[in-house]
Write a structure and sequence with these properties.
With 293 residues, this protein is of the alpha/beta class. The chain is 44% helix and 13% strand. Strands 7-6-3-2-1-9-8 form a 7-stranded parallel β-sheet. The chain has a two-stranded antiparallel ribbon with strand order 4-5. Helix 7 links the parallel strand 8 and strand 9.
């Protein structure tokens, strides 16, 4: 099975529109929904569930406000409205111990449980595979991964994203060498945490193959074609992540913190959306599924 997945659904109307267009007109068959996005509820109503094979809950401890009662999760927020940084979550994992760490775990579990509940009951009757992944891969932080696995059992969720890039060399292209070099450190760090995750839990709840981090947010038609050709030869479940949704100018006001807006406002996302809707990619994707019926 190959899932071509769009992350960040629910963040804004612009992002939702870009993703919905790629589901209806392109080859997206999977989407990750951010529970605390500004436009999550209204966005879900616009999804064409008949064209989707998987929906994941895109757990978010990075952007916007928490879903749960702020008084119960004070340790993972600041200014009583925004989450602490991913870096601080990493530091907590490696340098906080005992009762203090348990309190962090308790508050994170409370928030993630609230996030899952806010989405899962809207999609469980759609006869679609339900998965868990996260914004900026924060679910791979070991003590958070334990929580996510616990919640996956509670809600009988069979899929947790393992964003481990196995075919790094096969994706290399001299033309994109600078971009490749810039992302390789990030990919190797992600792979490290994936290895820890595999040592701790059974592989059956995770995908065997993954592509998308090396050219994250910058999938041109040629890059997507190359990755899809690799995915077709893979054995087992493969997930390819994409980011075809881009914010409208008026969406900028939704963000209290402006540091991430540039990524969402990039024209590279529009290029990615066009690639996902291209005739070439659609034919290649359909040919794969036709051969495997």
């Amino acid at each position: 099975m190959i899932y071509i997945n769009a992350d960040d659904f629910g963040l804004s109307n612009g992002i939702n529109k870009g993703i919905v267009d790629c589901i209806n007109k392109g080859c997206l068959n999977s989407v990750s929904i951010i529970p605390n996005g500004k436009c999550t509820s209204e966005g879900i109503k616009k999804l064409n569930f008949k064209k989707l094979k998987k929906i994941s809950i895109h757990l978010n401890l990075n952007e916007f406000s928490p879903i749960s009662n702020i008084k119960k999760i004070k340790k993972i927020t600041y200014n009583n409205k925004l989450f602490i940084s991913p870096l601080k979550l990493l530091l907590i994992n490696f340098f906080v111990f005992g009762s203090k760490k348990n309190e962090y775990k308790k508050q994170i579990e409370h928030e993630l449980d609230s996030q899952i509940k806010s989405v899962i009951f809207k999609i469980t009757k759609k006869n679609i595979t339900i998965g868990l992944d996260s914004h900026n891969h924060i679910h791979l932080i070991p003590f958070i991964f334990d929580i996510v696995c616990k919640l996956s059992k509670k809600y009988k969720i069979s899929y947790i994203r393992l964003p481990r890039e196995k075919s790094i060399i096969r994706q290399f292209n001299v033309k994109y060498s600078i971009e490749f070099a810039r992302n390789i450190v990030k990919v190797l760090a992600i792979n490290f945490f994936c290895t820890i995750a595999l040592l701790k839990k059974k592989k059956k709840i995770l995908n065997e193959n993954f592509h998308g981090s090396l050219y994250s947010g910058n999938f041109s038609l040629k890059k997507l074609e190359k990755v899809l050709m690799i995915a077709i030869k893979n054995k087992g479940t493969t997930e390819i992540i994409s980011h075809p949704g881009y914010i409208f100018r008026k969406d900028k006001k939704l963000w209290v913190s402006k540091k991430n807006i540039q990524n969402y406002y990039s024209n590279k996302r529009e290029v990615e959306a066009n690639a996902l809707q291209s005739i070439k990619i659609r034919k290649l994707f359909k040919k794969f599924f036709f051969k495997n019926k």
